[in-house]
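Protein modeling request. Please complete all fields; requests missing the sequence field cannot be processed.
Requester role: graduate student
Desired output: 3D structure, token encoding
Chains: 1
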Amino acid sequence: MHEHGLEQVQGEHRGLRRRSQAAPGLTLVLTFAGGATWEKSRRLPEPSAHDDDLRTLANRLMDAAGLQRGRLTGLALKDEDLADAGQVAEQVSLDEIRETRLMAEAAIDRIRDQFGPCVIGPAAVILCAS
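Delivered output (130 residues):
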């Protein structure tokens, strides 16, 4: 996914976590020069507000679009039918890597809350508007 798109996804889903919400899936809407649009939705196995889950889903949607040489004039990634995160049953995971990422994500959220959104993040989005 383009760097700006990755930054947008992370900002949106950090907002979900702050509001204690989870997204059951995403919808990607592309608008091309000339006004034609393309829309595709995909659902997660269970609602999530975690960067890895939603970034992976966003990348799958972008891959499904099969963009080649079309001129995009708009790109929208939407979370719809948001659920209260407290009402979402999260399955116990035995995946140590996932659990470590979720702990890191919580720590990164706390750092961003205290010092601002540009102080920490993936190298792909290191350029951040101040």
